[in-house]
Amino acid sequence: MRQLLRFRYLFFLSLLATTVSFISCDKDMSVSLDDSNDNLGVVVLDSMTINTSTYQLMHLPSASTGSMLVGKSTQPESGSITSSSYFRVQLQTLINDIPSNAVFDSVNLVLRPSINKYFYGDTTKAQTIAVHRVMETIALKDITNSIDQYNTPIYVTGPTIFNDQKFDFDATALGEKTFFPRINSLDSINIRLDQAFGQEIYDMVKANDYNVTSNESFQQYLKGLVLVPGNQNTAILGLNDTLQMNINYSYMGSDGFIKKGAKVITSSHKAFQYNNIEYDRTGTAYASINSIDRELKSSASNGEVLLHAGSGLVAKINIPSLNDFMHEEDLAINKVELIVETKGNNFGHYPVPNALMLLIANSNGVPISYVRTPFSTTVQQATFIPGNDSGVNGRYIFNLIDYTKNINQSDYRGTSLLLSVASPALFGTVNNTIIATENGKPKIKLNIVYTKFK
Q: Which residues are the signal sequence here (predicted)?
């Protein structure tokens, strides 16, 4: 009976010790699991210094994202971001199936919202989209052969098109449309194009011209189109990357009634559809960041750090004492969490990213790997946890137990962490968030719970 009581007493003490270790805010605390002769202790550590900067990624692919981003959005804290979308086109059929008695009517481009009806910005105001003819061949770029492998980001695996690339286009628009993007009810955007442009294509099809005998020759004639937003736009819209341009005609049917038809031109290979992203951070705390001066320490931006998908802004994180800590003997890591608190919510005109990820960067700041889900090969994504009206910030929580245990391996020497919007949203959206601050520093905390053998 006495042994049973002693067991229950010890079991209660162990539960109490574990509970205290997880709820305590002490920076370095040891709790004995038994009597004073026990050589085992649980320690909670949350006082490690974390150095953080806003950092500009380079070579961000923006092709084949599944969504054409078109528009402009402006926020006081982050500046403006503008997206134009380029794409190749092809004839849906290569045969001349236009009736002999048909006459050309008009040409129009039909755009439809992306499947998830993505938008970012104020959609209560009128938006303008102009269609321009691309005058330069839209071509893929292969940086894996042109720069050292040490400087090739892990997310670049072959030839692609990057968000900062531009191809020449005719300054005179083929057509434009101003509309109110009622996101929930918007079915399509119909843009009437230049009459002479449509007539020329119609005549070529009727004459079996060389330019329409194959899509290769057609793409020499029409190298592509680009959708350009109006300068006064207030939102970026996600449009389906499958679209169509109709060369409309009419003819007298055998029944004596006027009938309508169209020669359809569609978007071509998705690898040649990409979004050109431009940003203007003038007047913000991040105005000095560009492709040359790529890093801004948080101390120079009032402790705030900006993450921005599309433009490639991430948070660069260094934890100087973590390596030394992991060299300590007689300890076993039980739990490691990186907690990032952020401003904003995941609803409204400017929602924060749904999830973040951590990239591992080499000494040049180039992403070479990802922080993966423990005991898995998948990239770890921390989903947004909303805050509340009582002053609790939204947050993202990462499990870093595997990363921490491997930090002293040779592959991790000289590396840092890059906190980024999770893929694929990093490449196909423009959502942003600013990390919350406390006492003039970013609210990023590394919590480590470990067992110390005395």
A: 1-23
CB atoms within 10 A of CB 262: 17
> Residue 364 phi/psi, 5° resolution?
-85, 0
Distance in angstroms (rounded) separating the CA atoms of residues 191 and 189: 6
* Cross-strand pairs, 335: 449
To which residue do tokens 């997206």 refer? 83
Q: Tell me if 141 sits within 8 A of 99, measured CB to CB.
A: no
Mean pLDDT of 371-380: 95
Comparing C-alpha atoms, which of 225, 191, 234 is closest to residue 82? 234
Contacts of 6 (CB under 8 A, 6+ apart): none
Distance CA 207, CA 299 (A): 67
Residue type, 66: G
On whether the CB atoms of residues 396 and 355 are closer than 8 A, the answer is yes
Report helix, strand and coil shares of the chain as percent, to nearest 5. Answer: 15, 40, 45
In the numeric block, which tokens belong to residue 213? 């005998």
Paired with 449 in beta bridges are 44, 335
149-169 burial string, b = 16+ CB within 10 Å, else e?
A: eeebbebbeeebbbbbbebeb
Amino acid of residue 121: G
Query: What are the extents of the domains in the chain?
Result: 22-56+291-453, 67-278
Lowest mean pLDDT among 21-25, 409-413, 420-424: 21-25
Kind plus residue range of the DSSP H or E element containing 179: strand 175-179
Strands (E), 312-440: 313-318, 331-342, 355-361, 367-370, 381-383, 394-399, 416-421, 432-434, 437-438
* Residue type for position 181: P
DSSP code of residue 403: H
Q: What is d(CA 386, CA 395) in angstroms, rounded to the nearest whole number?
A: 7
DSSP state of 298: G
pLDDT tens by residue, 110-140:
999 999 999 999 999 999 999 999 999 999 9
| Residue that has been written with the tokens 């978007």 in this structure | 267
